[in-house]
TrEMBL record:
Residue ranges occupied by any Nitrite/Sulfite reductase ferredoxin-like domain in the UniProt entry: 101-164, 348-412
Similarity remark: Belongs to the nitrite and sulfite reductase 4Fe-4S domain family.
Keyword terms: 4Fe-4S, Heme, Iron, Iron-sulfur, Metal-binding, Oxidoreductase, Thioether bond
GO-annotated molecular function: sulfite reductase (ferredoxin) activity
Limits of the Nitrite/sulphite reductase 4Fe-4S domain: 172-328, 424-557
Pfam families, per the entry: NIR_SIR, NIR_SIR_ferr
Region Disordered: start-end pairs: 1-45
Name this polypeptide is given: assimilatory sulfite reductase (ferredoxin)
Presence of the UniProt keyword Secreted in the record: no
InterPro entries to which the protein is assigned, alphabetical: NIR_SIR_4Fe-4S (IPR051329), NiRdtase/SiRdtase_haem-b_fer (IPR005117), Nit/Sulf_reduc_fer-like_dom_sf (IPR036136), NO2/SO3_Rdtase_4Fe4S_dom (IPR006067), NO2/SO3_Rdtase_4Fe4S_sf (IPR045854), NO2/SO3_Rdtase_FeS/sirohaem_BS (IPR006066)
EC id: 1.8.7.1
């Protein structure tokens, strides 16, 4: 049970400003559900659906599933229905959800910054092969995502995951989603401090805890003590960012209120210093503020970023300290990002003299056979294991120096590259129309084809340019923070026909170029014309740049 300080706050009748229309904040007494999602969560704790899946739905089949569970509470178990094949993007907004629903599921497995050993990788591989038609994607939240999962298979999958120390609990839904940790936590020579123990403790205490299973909206967490800010702290609801206090030493600053999608906002620094062992308590304070004061009227205004924007960081810190922690936090600060990004690609020496090796699949797409083969490589090289990254990549940790060249070659054989081109390294894509019910356009295959073509046209690009391809405005693959961000939509071709295409955002980034891409409304490109469009943009940049001028700086001129 949670610390009593963090019990949900509910004002008494006399405290409630009844005359004023509220935003559904529980702490102000607005506890009556204001929309159907809130009603569903109030009707039944979404965590309870686990038992129904195990004992009813998996035995009686898809048609036995209560629609309120199917399209609502299943998400708390990491399950979404996937898009029925053959429905084009033009129908996405016009069809009811049940018309888009397939009888198969997407299933998301959390990794939470954990080190995955050979056994865990083989387990993940076998689940893909046995139950998901060989599919598996690494998401930019360090999850493994399967497709084609049938409800009858779910208990067996959960059993196998549990035996490997993994689960799908609260991987989706209005809950504390999968955490981002530093892929090189505990091994990087330049690490400020290792946040792994804090992440593990947050998971142990709070995931699956009914105190936090009914949030206004999703809640994204990042904890990293690596100076590259490899946990993308700018775009999480709560981020603990490694910093060194001049008196107290290594610890974390707290950033809150980041998020993309509509109304994108970067997380704001509270300017505090938090020692490692206090991170779980402070995390609970932040999520409790979100639960109690978060806006529940409109889902489009429910993310923590809206509360932070309205309150400002000074009030947020005051409420955290006074109402939840019962003490003041130590003043501190955190650095700006020191390097461009933290994908950790390539071979890098660890602090113990061994190496970590970052490798990339293409746009995060792996497979059951690839995961199993990766497990075999971990065993062959007696490596410590693998962590996933927030850039749809992976890192193999604990490789002996003299084994690195052979490992790099073996990785290429199974379809992973530690020596990728810029385009393979710096392109991400969301799920897109292949499986996602919100998608308007194809993303994974389109991005993969784009990479092949750009590798042919710019084989020796000497500066990184990131390309993020999204199937709709939701920005799962971070439209606004790429050099070239692509937002899927229908556009008109030269003959006036509606076809798949993208709105282009140029010059975004996180880190050195902290900012959002400029949305160039006039820049809409058909999917078929994408290769030539990007070629023209990149050629203009290469011709026009001054020495060492980055793509984002060139766009901002
Ligand atoms: Fe689906 Fe849109 Fe997210 Fe892509 S950005 S995975 S299309 S919701």
């Amino acid at each position: 049970m949670s610390d009593p300080r963090f019990q949900a706050r509910r004002a008494t009748q006399t405290e409630i400003p009844r005359t004023k229309r509220g935003e559904g904040q529980w702490a102000l007494g607005f506890t009556e559900p204001l929309n159907k999602n809130e009603q569903s969560k109030k009707d039944d704790d979404p965590l309870n659906v686990r038992e129904r899946i195990l004992h009813i739905y998996s035995k009686r089949g898809f048609d036995s599933i209560d629609p309120a569970d199917l399209r609502g509470r299943f998400r708390w178990m990491g399950l979404y229905t996937q898009r029925k094949p053959g429905i084009d993007g033009g129908k996405t907004g016009s069809l009811a959800e049940e018309e888009l629903d397939d009888r198969y599921f997407m299933m998301r497995v959390r990794s939470d910054g954990q080190l995955l050993g050979a056994t865990q990788l083989r387990t993940l591989g076998s689940i893909s092969t046995d139950f998901a038609r060989g599919t598996a994607d690494i998401t930019d939240r360090q999850n493994i995502q399967y497709h084609w999962v049938e409800i009858e298979s779910v208990p067996e999958i959960w059993d196998r995951l549990a035996a490997a120390g993994l689960n799908t609990l609260e991987a989706c839904g209005d809950s504390p989603r999968g955490f981002l940790g530093s892929p090189v936590a505990g091994v990087a020579a330049d690490e400020i401090l290792d946040g792994s123990s804090a992440l593990a403790e947050i998971k142990r205490r709070y995931i699956g805890n009914p105190a936090y299973s009914n949030l206004p909206r999703k809640f994204k967490t990042s904890v990293s003590g690596h100076p590259s800010l490899d946990g993308a702290p700018e775009i999480n609801d709560v981020s603990f960012v490694g910093t060194v206090h001049p008196e107290h030493g290594p610890g974390f600053d707290l950033w809150v209120g980041g998020g993309l999608s509509t109304n994108p906002m970067l997380a704001q620094k509270l300017g505090v210093w938090i020692p490692l062992e206090e991170v779980p308590d402070v995390w609970e304070g932040v999520i409790a503020i979100f639960r109690d004061y978060g806006y529940r009227r409109l889902r489009s205004r429910a993310r923590l970023k809206f509360l932070v924007a309205d309150w400002g960081v000074a009030k947020f810190r005051e409420v955290l300290e006074n109402e939840y922690l019962g003490r003041k936090l130590v003043d501190g600060t955190s650095p700006e990002r020191a390097v461009r990004n933290g994908d950790h690609i390539g071979a890098h020496e660890q602090k113990d003299g061994r190496f970590y090796v970052g490798a990339t699949p293409t746009v995060g797409r792996v497979s059951g056979t690839m995961l199993t083969a990766l497990g075999d490589l971990v065993e062959k090289y007696a490596a410590d294991g693998v962590r996933l990254t927030s850039y749809q990549k992976l890192v193999i940790l604990g490789v002996e120096a003299d084994a690195v060249p052979d490992l790099l070659d073996d990785l290429e054989v199974i379809g992973l590259s530690a020596r990728p081109s810029n385009w393979r390294r710096s392109t991400m894509a969301c799920t897109g129309i292949e499986f996602c019910k919100l998608a308007i356009v194809d993303t994974k295959q389109r991005a993969s084809d784009l990479i092949d073509e750009l590798e042919r046209r710019f084989p020796d690009l000497d500066t990184p340019i990131t390309v993020n391809v999204n199937g709709c405005p939701n920005s799962c693959a971070r439209i606004q923070v790429a050099d070239i961000g692509l937002k899927g939509q229908l556009v008109l071709d030269d003959d006036g026909n509606q076809v798949e295409g993208f709105q282009v955002h140029l010059g975004g980034g996180i880190g050195l170029t902290n900012g959002f891409g400029r949305k160039l409304r006039a820049h809409k490109v058909t999917s078929a014309g994408l290769d030539d469009y990007i070629t023209a943009v990149v050629e203009s940049y290469l011709d026009d740049r001054t020495e060492d001028e980055s793509f984002a700086a060139w766009v901002a001129r």
